[in-house]
Amino acid sequence: MRYYLLTGAGFSANWGGWVASEAFEYLLGCPEILADDRLRDLLWDYQLKGGFEDALAELQTGHSAGFAQQWSDKQLINFQNAVGRMFDDMNRSFKGRADLEFLQPPNLTYTTVERSQMAERTVRRFLQRFPVIFTLNQDLLLEHLYFSKPEVRTAVRPELPGLQRIAEASAPPGESWADSSWRPNGNQPTVFREGNQAYVKLHGSSNWYAEDGRLVLIIGGSKQQAIGTFPILGSYLRAFEDTLTTPGSRLFVIGYGFRDVHVNEVLDRAIAKGLRLFVIDPKGAELAFELNETRKNRLITVPTPLEAMWRQGVIGGSRRRLSEIFGVDHTEYNKIARFFDS
């Protein structure tokens, strides 16, 4: 079997990153939003129907409607700047942390055998089990707390496929991916090299820039169409499907809410070819059913394709936070470890 990882916003939330509902609340207080009542109203209008990403989607659509456009250049730019401010604040907070491991409290007494077992039961060791880490996140959590570690670079030889570092005179010395800016390196198919751990950011990153200076970062509506404007992200999406449709593939999913249609379509096709999933989410194996609006308010229930996909593909799950799983909860850790024997 070949095991891969997919992370979403719920993964970064374990270290203080914001999920969509919290991003909404952050954006409400940004100067760019406070200065424009229409933008504040737009955010509130989408609070319960798609959140800030759907609000941005309306801005993008209304801005591109030609002479009938509903939103100005300045309003779109201000909203995007507020989102950029949010990522900057998150990334600064990650830089100041050093607790990726979630070790048990150090004041307890352990035997030599227990200490050896604890060394294996860390987030770092868990991440090292995957030849490819796919993520939908654009923050720099892993760049700060995982890939910057010398022991990680020695153990897994990490790489950012298809990217080159942008030389910056102001950048600090060293090999930190988070303290650098990156640019797509041409238009080549994404290839994963045996023996290296690839980090594949399917929606781009808050420190990636195109040749024309645009951020290579996908937020808002029409994500699949937007991905097509950046060849590297189109290549990543194809590699994501090629990898997961390979016989014997298994996918560990942490913190992805299964709301991106283009990602779900890939997973559906891969599951039909044998892919199986283990999902960590506060809703556990009920997540797909929670997303079905017909199961709420006593409506006539209509099963969804996502529910069918889950019934076929999900072979395990956990509702616990990572701090519990990789902390004191031995039982839950043993449950996720069993996935690697499936």
Write up what this structure looks like:
- The chain starts with a strand and ends with a helix.
- Strand 7 (204-209) and strand 8 (215-217) form a beta hairpin.
- It is globular.
- The strands form three sheets. It has a seven-stranded parallel β-sheet with strand order 3-6-2-1-9-10-11, with helices on both faces. Strands 4-5 form a two-stranded antiparallel ribbon. A two-stranded antiparallel sheet has the order 7-8.
- The chain has one domain.
- With 342 residues, the chain is of the alpha/beta class.
- The model has no long low-confidence stretch (mean pLDDT 87).
- It is built from 17 helices and eleven strands.
- 42% of the residues lie in helices and 15% in strands.
Keywords:
single chain, 342 residues, alpha/beta, 7-stranded parallel sheet, two-stranded antiparallel ribbon, 11 strands
In short:
By secondary structure, this protein is α/β, with parallel strands linked by helices. The chain has one domain.
SSE arrangement:
Elements: E1 2-7, H1 9-12, H2 20-28, H3 31-34, H4 37-45, H5 51-63, H6 73-95, H7 112-120, H8 123-127, E2 132-135, H9 141-145, H10 150-156, E3 158-159, E4 163-166, E5 181-184, E6 197-201, E7 204-209, E8 215-217, H11 223-227, H12 231-244, E9 249-254, H13 261-272, E10 276-280, H14 287-290, H15 305-313, E11 314-318, H16 322-325, H17 330-338
Parallel strand pairs: 1-2, 1-9, 2-6, 3-6, 9-10, 10-11
Antiparallel strand pairs: 4-5, 7-8
**Helix-residue proportion:** 40-55%
Shape: globular
Q: What is the assembly state of the chains in this entry? A: single chain
What is the strand tally?
Answer: 11
Helix segment count?
17
Question: Strand sequence of the main sheet, in spatial order?
Answer: 3-6-2-1-9-10-11
Mean pLDDT, rounded to whole units? Answer: 87
What is the terminal-to-terminal distance? 8 Å
Topology as a string of helices (H) and strands (E): EHHHHHHHHEHHEEEEEEHHEHEHHEHH
Number of domains: 1
Content of β-strand: 5-15%
How much is the radius of gyration in Å? Answer: 21 Å
Structural class: alpha/beta
